[in-house]
Amino acid sequence: MTKISVRGAGIRHGLLGALLLTVGGVSAAHAQDPPVPDSLPPISDSLEVVPDSVLAAFADSVRQRAQSFPARLTGLRGPTHEIFDCDRECVHASPSFTLLELLLEHVPGITGVRGEFYQGPHHVFDGGFGPGFATLYIDGREVLSLSRAQADLRRVSLNYVDRVRVYRGADGLVIDVDLIRHDGVQAYSRVSGLTGDPRSEILDAVFANSLGGASNVEASFERYDVQDRQNNQDRFAVQGRFSWMPRSNDFGVQFEYRSENIERTGLDTLQFSRREFVARTRANLGPRAQVEAYGQATSFTDVVENLPDSISPPQRGADGVGLRFSARPGSGGVSMGLRFAGRDVYASRIADLSAWQPIGPFTLEGGAELASWNEFPTESWRAGAAFRDTLLFPIELRAFTAEGTRGFGFPQHPMLDTLGTSEFVLADTVRFDSRGASAALAIGPFNLAGRYSEQWMDRQVGFGAPFDRLVVADSGEVDITSLEVRFDGPVVPLGVLLRNVSPIRLRASWRKFDSRGAETLFLPDRLFRTELYLSDTFFDESLRIWVSVFIDRRGARLVPVPGSPDPVMLDADSWMGGHLMFKIADFRFFWRFGNLGADQIGDFQGARFPRQLNVFGLRWEFFN
Questions:
Q1: Are 250 and 70 in contact (CB under 8 A)?
Q2: What is the pLDDT of residue 529?
Q3: Cβ atoms within 10 Å of 71's Cβ, excluding its own
């Protein structure tokens, strides 16, 4: 009888770059073919059966894996925060063009600030908290601002987004964005284009596929050409990412590059280019722990035509390295991060920790942030508790608190170089104290929720941008309380008239602010959004439609005037819009409208939204 022998390969360990990570081993089975005999032996009367364990081991040794960069093990925060989650299907079904629009659509009670409707800068904050209390993360890496106290949300192309989670707690907002990550199985493509009024030609696309037996590649581009109110808004961006998983899907190395050129003439007239390079490595330490390290280099260059290099605005940038450790001990979670930055405007060292643990229907969570700046240290802590159970109906209760000192960096903006003012500080601090509680319950198909919060700051700190750097505002204490109510549920039962048709649902939120002490910039006295929407499938799911109509209502608010030290009060305004989208096979055709009354609406005086929004386009998603 001929014997089959299996030889095992050993385990090897390696060192990658300056970041020490463990690389797992791999085994391979090799079978030796027997020599061909001169004559065949007689056939045995008995049949020998190979054990299943041997067959399984041999099959595993030759099966090709679907290479994929390791997914993040845990979120950045725990369930005592209100978490608003929008996955890939949610992003596709949304009429939003930008990340800020997506947040305003799905996260109730937040305030958006847009210098220009399409191109930015785009910012967001929660209640009375200013720009430094909203942090943007991309694939678990904090995005450092290049010209303001908050990163421009327009740096994220919505077409490249796979998932967005927003954590809203006592210390502001954490915006956690995951980009598309190839799963190693099928090539994936997504193309989006639109045109209409205002005169706009927008095209963006993303592609993801495997490359060889141990690597993946993703690439995207974005092209904007928009003209409204005699303002040109041009944008061209390309992004590429290469992932290498040499041994298994438990370890990977990733290189990412993004380049974009932007010209805008809305709130701040600029023509500039941004370049960013990120190197990342991530490894699973068993099924319940993960470690990650990254390095980033970002540059910001102002383009001034016919200007000699000797007097051109200097190039600015944001460089840094970071580490993150995540674990899932039991049913809880731990997320720890450490970041080092090499420029004076940023914290030289910053460490954050979040940990949460369920105990029956209760969950306890705690966290802290420690930072070292050139002129001062900062520290803050947070704590929360949540209860989730089904009594007469499913119910969630949360209580949260946070206090400490938060630091803000002000990267120098080129327009400030020409201002005859005193030297601006590179960083500043704010002391804060916040607490609140929220409740959510589901009664049949109806979802009800409410939230109460108190926010106190020893003074206000602005964006540090040209539109608010010169504002002379009262820097005394600010004490803001807010009350929020939300509803989501069916209101028009179309199934009574049309068989098997989903009902029209209503999604509404209302938030009221009461401010004491110093006047608060950008904060309306109330926010209200109501939306009627319908989503259904027909003809054995061959056709799917989405229809929505919404109204956004903002109360009066105090805003700065670019180039003036005196803020002005803007009256309350409303923006009405809607969209129709239908999907046939892999194609989504959409039409979106807004501000059909051509009202004068904007976040700043002199920087208005489009007179009318009437655009249509196509989104094409396919696997091959």
A1: yes
A2: 96
A3: 12
- Work out the number of other CB atoms within 10 angstroms of the CB of residue 600: 12
75/77 Cα distance (integer angstroms): 6
Instruction: Assess whether pLDDT exceeds 80 at residue 455.
Output: yes
Residue type, 510: W
For 167, residues 6+ apart whose C-beta sits below 8 A from its C-beta are 75, 76, 77, 81, 82, 83, 173, 174, 176
pLDDT band of residue 146 (cuts 50, 70, 90) is confident
Beta-carbon-side half-sphere exposure of residue 464 (alpha carbons within 13 Å): 26
- Triad 365, 368, 370: Cα angle to 5°: 170
Residue 482 has pLDDT above 90, yes or no: yes
- pLDDT-derived band at 30, boundaries 50, 70, 90: very low
Nearest residue to 295 via CA among 338, 357, 248: 338
Tell me the residue type at 463: F
Count CB neighbours of 572 within 10 A: 13
3-class DSSP state of 224: strand
Q: What does the block give as tokens for 337?
A: 């991060």
* DSSP E strand boundaries for 573-612: 573-584, 587-594, 602-604, 607-608
Q: How far is CA 267 from CA 99, 476, 558, 605, in A?
A: 19, 28, 17, 9
For the whole model, what pTM was predicted?
0.85
- The residues, any chain, with a CB within 8 Å of residue 420's CB and separated by 6 or more, are none
Residue 600 has pLDDT above 90, yes or no: no
Length, in residues, of the chain: 624
pLDDT (tens digit per residue) in 288-332: 999 999 999 988 887 666 555 655 566 677 889 999 999 999 899
pLDDT band at 215 (very low <50, low <70, confident <90, very high): very high
**Residue 45: pLDDT over 60:** no
Q: Tokens 């364990």 — which residue?
A: 53
Nearest to 371 by CA among 345, 339, 343: 339
Tell me, what DSSP letter sits at residue 50?
A: P
On the CB side of 421, CA atoms within 13 Å amount to: 16
